[in-house]
Design brief:
Number of helices: 43
Region (Disordered): 616-636, 689-738
Number of strands: 3
Family: Belongs to the mesothelin family.
Keywords: Cell adhesion, Glycoprotein, Membrane, Signal
Radius of gyration: 29 Å
Strand content: under 5%
Largest sheet: 3 strands, antiparallel
Helix content: 40-55%
Shape: globular
Subcellular location: Membrane
Main location: membrane
Amino acid sequence: MVMGGPHLLSPLQLVLYPPPVTPHLSARTSSAHRTAMGLRAGGQVNPGLALLVWLTAHCSCPQAQGSSQGGLEASGDDLWGSTNTSLLHGFWCQPASQLSRDQLSTLIQGMASQQVPLRAWQLSCLANLATRHGLQDNFELHPPNLLLFYNLTQVREATCRAFTRRAAQGDTELLANLPDQRSALQHTALACLGAPHRRLNALDLLLLGALVCDMHASRIETADPHVLENLQRCHQLTAPQQAALNSLLAGGKTVLGPPGSWNLEGLQALGALASYISSSLWVQVQEAVGLAFFSSMVATYRAGQLSQGNARRFVTGFLKAKAMSVSSRPKRGTDARRPCVRGDITAATLLDDLFLVRYDCMQLESCLGSHVLQANLDPLLQHPLPAECQRVVKAKLARVYPHGVPEEQLRLITSLVYLYSRSEISQWNITSRDTVVALLASDVALENQTEAVLQKYLDHNGTITSALLMAIGGSRLCWMSARQIQAIRPVEFRRAGALDISSCPQSRKDALYTKAREAFGSTRNTASYYRFMRPYLGGAPVEELRHLAQANVSMDIDTFTNLNPRVLQSLSVGNVTTLLGQNVGDLQKARSHPTISSWLRSLNTSALGELGLDTDTAGPTGPARSTTGIPDTTPWVSHLAPTSGQRGNNAPTSGSAPAHLQYWLLAAALPSGLLWLLYWGIPGPSQDCSQGTCTKASKDSAGPAPQAEKLGLEGGARHLLRPPPRLQGQRTWPCPTS
C-alpha cells in the first residue's frame, strides 16, 4: 500500500473493468503489440510471457516511493475475495470465464459477503459460469440475487428448502426480462414446500419471502395473516393484490386486529404497505390514531424516506375517507358564506404535518395568498399534494407569474413539472444545469416535458455534458429529440458511461446507437468495443449483430431481449447461437418475452430442436408477468433434480456446452513477485504521464467498427495485455511519482 498516494489498482481490474478506449496507437505501442502478436505465430501463447512482454514495453511511470509489497504476498484466492465493492460492481463475464473454479468460487463469495449490487445482465451470465463449474450446490454462500438466475432443474430435492429460503431474499424484479424463469422459480418453490395448491401457512411464508410478490391475489388472500411481512418486500402491488391485502386487513385476523382497534405502532410497522389501505378501512379507524399516523407519514415523506408515489397514494386515500366522514355530518350555515373557513394560510401553517388534513384543495384555493405562495413555495411542495391540489398551485403560479415561472422558483416545482405543456415551458428561462437536473429529477414520466426543458437550456447556450447525462439518468434520453441526441458531443457520451436506455422506444434506441457508434466506434479491441456498446445495442442493425456473433462476445440474455425485434427476425438460428455463446440456454428462461417469443414463432420444429427448445413457444409454465402475479391455474411441473448426482466441472449450464478453458488467469500464470506491477496504473498507448497523472487522448469522430477477432490470444490471454482501466469515478489514471 502507498500511504497518501493514488489508489492502488488490483489485479482484479483486469476482469472487473474494461481497458480504456484506445483509438490510436503510438509507434512504440504498435511495436510492442507486434512483438506480442508475433509470439503466437506458431500457436497459443503462454499468457504470463505475453503479459511480461507487454509490461516491459508499456511500464514507463516510475514506482512510487514507500510502496509496500506486504499486501501482495496473499494467496491468489484471497485477492479475488478481498477486493473492494466498487471493483466487484464492475464485474464482466467474458474475462471472468477464464477463471479457475476456485477463483470463481472465491469471487462469488466475495460478492455475497460485500453485498455487491450486480445487475441482471451481470447475474445471468455469472450464474451460467457458476453452473458450468459445478458451483451451484454452494448456493448458501452465494448472493441471493444470483440464485434467481440459476438452472432450476439442478436444484436438488434434499436442499430445495434451503435454496428457496436463500433465493427468496433476492429481488425478483431482476427477472423482468426472464418471464419463464420467474414463473419456474415460483413453481419450484411451491413444489419444494409441497404446496402447489394448498393454503400457505406461516412456515411456508417464512421460506417464500419476496417470492410471494409474484403470486396471484387469491393465494395471498387465503394465506396465513403473516403474509403481510412478505408483502412489505414487494416493489409494487397489482390492483388485485391490493384488494386481497385490504380483504385480509378487514378480516381482523392480522396482528393489527380489526380496523377499529388499530394503533399507531401497528400502522407504522406496515411501512409503505400502509399506502395501499383503502378509504373504506380508514373510515373505520379511530380518528386520533388516523391523524397521528397521517402526521408520521408526511414527516417520513418530507424526510425523503417515502417515495412520492407511495406518499401521494396514501394521502389521496386517507383524505378521501375524511371527506366521506365530513360529508355525512350536517353542515353549518356559516361555512357557505365564508370562502376561506380555516383561516389564511401562513408560513407557520405550512410547517404543520397535518396541513393537508386541515386544508383540502378547495380551502387551498381560497386561503393561500400570492405573497405567501411566492415566499413559501418550497415548504408547500414538500407536502405530498394530491393531483387536484397540485393543479390549484399551478394555476396560482400562473397568476403570480404570467410571463413564466422564474428560474429560482423552477428548481422547487419538481413535483409539478408533469402538469406543464410545451408552450408553457417555452416561457421559462433555463440557464443552469442545476435547474435542468432539478426539473427532470421527478420519478413521474416526463415525455414531452423532457425535450422542452432541455431545449430551453440549449437555447441559452447550454450544453449536454456527461455530468448532466449521469444526473438525469438514461431514461430521460428516451424523450430527447433526435436533434438533441445528435448535439451530444461523443466525448461527453463516452464519459457518461453505461446509461440504461432499455425503456426507450425503438426510434430513440436507434438514435442513441448511432451516437454510441460515434463515441466508441474507434475502439480497436472487439471485446472492449462490445462492452462499451452493450447498453445501446437495442438500436443495432443486423450487420452489427452478425459481426459481434463472429467475435464470440457471448451476449447475455438481458441484452438480447432488448434488441430490435425486427432486426432479430433477420438473424438465423446459427447467428443467435453464436451471438449468445455460452448463454444460449437462457433462451428457455425468456421464451415468453415478446421479443424472443416473436422470433421463436418464426422458426420451424427442426430449428427449435437445434436450440434445445420444444415446439411449445409459450413455454412449459406459461408467461410470468412482472408485478402482475402468476395465475395458479398453470399446470404445475416439478423442476427439482433428484437428490443423487455428482457435482463437478462437467455440470451443464442452462442448455450450453461447457466452453474450453484456454488459459489460466494472471495469478496462476505469473510469479507472485510480478503482481505488484498490476497495482499501478500502467499508461496506455495514448496517455501522458508528464504531469504526474496519465491522461487519455481521444477523438470525437467515429472510426470503423472493429474487425472480428478469432478466439486465440484475443479470446484468452489478450485481455491480460491491456492497460488497467480507471478506477470508478476517476477521470485520469494515477501514475506513481518518484
